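Appendix B. One record, verbatim.
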Amino acid sequence: MKKTRNTLLALLLALTCFLCAVPVVAADAPTVEFTYSYGGQTIPCATKTAEGGSVTMPDAPEVLTGFVGWYAEIGGQKHLLPAGGVCTAVTEDATFVALTVDYKTDYDASVRLRDGDVALRFTSTITLTTYEALTAIVGEENVSFGTYIVPLSYVKKEFTLEALAAGGYTQYVDVPAGAFYAMTEESATVAGSIGQILYDHYTLKYTAIGYMKVKYTDGTTGTVYAAYNRDKNQASVAKTVLLAYEDRSVDESETHKNKIVAPNGTSYSPYTAEELELCEGFLDKIALIGLDLDEKGKYQYFVYKTKYYVSPWSIDYVLDAYEDATITVTAPAGRSVNEIRGIFVDGARSSLKNATILSDSKLQFERSTFIG
């Protein structure tokens, strides 16, 4: 009996030593795939191994617009991270997909007439299905919108705060949106305006871009810019206000409900008489000058011709041998050229810095034929 017991003890000891000698095989690190949708197809763009349960997000695919971040659901938890972000909760194989929104800065601009001020309003529009897909992940409280506005000359091609800073421009107008400006069943519109226009900026061209701030599931915050086109996302206050003033119809309609009675006839406008009065007061501070060729093929300058607006200023000019013009703006009785805040010649801005005030009633400036 004693011999049998010793034999069993020896066998157990040997088995224990054998088990200790067998190497432990570590579980493979999870594999993480990254894909995006383009042209109706799902396209793989990267494969990584989540060593230690962590993986770094790749850059945004260059072909995508409106890129927000990389999204995956792992272990029942939603993860949305920006490019370069790190997910530290990869416990299983996972696929991150590129999440985008359909968000565009709208072309052109409109006037905002409020509290006696004439302002330039820019808008951007987001498709609701893409917005709702985003907020289903991070919550509405973690998504906000706004508009950045700068003089057009600040933007060379790309409009981001980083691009502005690289060009030496650190000042810009930031208009956070407290709520959507307008909504339809398919989309929501964000608005941002610039008002209290500065001296000599009445004819300046501005540009704007919509932005969206997103708080990601890792606690960081990023900016998503709306699609932007420099050539079409620009407007001058003078031209926009003039277009609004001239937006009339001879018949009443759903969009033109306000009856306007004036010496040059009755018309209907989207704006009330009080709002048009604001526009007129703004335009009265601009010397609007037209340009064309006379019957001899020489340049001639005149008060810009419109159907409804009547400028208070009169124009005279003298051409030199090269047809460069010396233009004189004269104020009517009871007014002063010191009221002028901008000069607009043939749709182009001429800075007041280049003008000379000859008297209280006369302002003069030079204009080259070759100015566009």
